[in-house]
Design a protein that fits this description.
By secondary structure, this protein is an alpha+beta fold. About 15% of the residues lie in helices and about 10% in strands. Strands 1-2 form a two-stranded antiparallel ribbon. The N and C termini lie far apart (about 75 Å).
């Protein structure tokens, strides 16, 4: 019987040692994720969750509040 092993180029947050950093909830799916430099997708649990979040920003589903009618980057002299 052969066992399939994860691809070497696809690290998973769950494969990190217990002392890799604090465990936080993934902002996308709420699964546990290591918040440490060893997790390339932190604070997300996986590349998939990171890409879903980036897509939401790119499609303007998320917005940062500001004053209406206040153009960005304009300065008054």
């Amino acid at each position: 019987m052969s066992h399939s092993s994860p691809s070497a180029d696809q690290p998973k947050a769950n494969d990190q040692p217990a002392n890799a950093g604090p465990i936080v909830a993934c902002p996308q799916c709420q699964q546990p994720a290591h918040f440490a430099p060893s997790n390339p997708w932190r604070p997300f649990c996986s590349e998939r969750c990171q890409r879903i979040d980036m897509g939401a920003w790119a499609s303007e589903q998320f917005r940062i509040a500001g004053k209406p009618g206040d153009p960005q980057g304009s300065e008054q002299d």
